[in-house]
Amino acid sequence: MKYARIYLDGKARFASISGPALTVLDGTPFGRYEPSARTLDAASAKYLAPCQPSKIVCVGLNYADHAAETGKPLPPEPLLFIKPSTAVQDPGGPIVYPEMSQRVDYEGELAIVIKKSASHIDPARWEQYVLGYTCFNDVTARDLQAKDGQFTRAKGFDTFAPIGPVITDEVSPDDLAIETRLNGAVKQSSRTSQLIFPPSFLVAYISRVMTLLPGDVIATGTPSGISGMAVGDTVEVEIEGIGVLTNTVCGPATCCPNRIY
What we know:
Elements: E1 2-8, E2 11-18, E3 21-27, E4 33-41, E5 47-48, E6 56-60, H1 64-70, E7 79-83, E8 88-89, E9 94-96, E10 104-105, E11 108-114, E12 130-137, E13 140-141, H2 142-148, H3 152-156, E14 161-168, E15 177-182, E16 185-191, H4 199-207, E17 217-219, E18 228-229, E19 234-239, E20 243-250
Parallel strand pairs: 6-17, 8-14, 9-20
Antiparallel strand pairs: 1-2, 1-5, 1-14, 2-3, 3-4, 6-7, 10-13, 10-18, 11-12, 11-17, 12-14, 15-16, 15-19, 19-20
């Protein structure tokens, strides 16, 4: 099943996707729901971030080629950090370039969306806790990351966590093509089979560190090819079988987040 979260009649609603049609749901895929009688054209819908995470757990240096380009050794265990829920941005929403940074990078990633509360789960049952997979952009103020020596400020700005456009359980996360384009030019191109710590390991591992809640997101890491973006640039993260997450960079003087919850 593919799920979307859309803006309809002044509020957020969940919908299932079948071909060119959206079926509005009564309820939520994180609990109980029933399909309603209302359908919409998928191409004309206003898509919101497909979930509202309490936290976004990110995995650093999870592709060997990305570790090499940053000059850092491979971590013996997953390198975890958290983006705040306030960083979430919708598909098509602006990425706001903060005034205090001189270099803001894209990082295209596969994201795992948690279906139900997970704590110390049996690794053999990890898939029971996953609703599906989506595209993620771990936007990063690279100069502030280097300056601070840790990730909270550099990764935590409003709009620095675009997610979407859909969540799907119709793919296996083990070997998907992932590509990031900047103004149409391919900048990152890899496959999820190159992840050092795969989704099956990450879900169980992270659940032993912190309780994962419905709607929480695990961003699995980015391949090589990171670089800076400028105001006016458009960045696309495309993952095989999921879709394309598109956002445009704007300056704080020319736009604001303007998100809908």
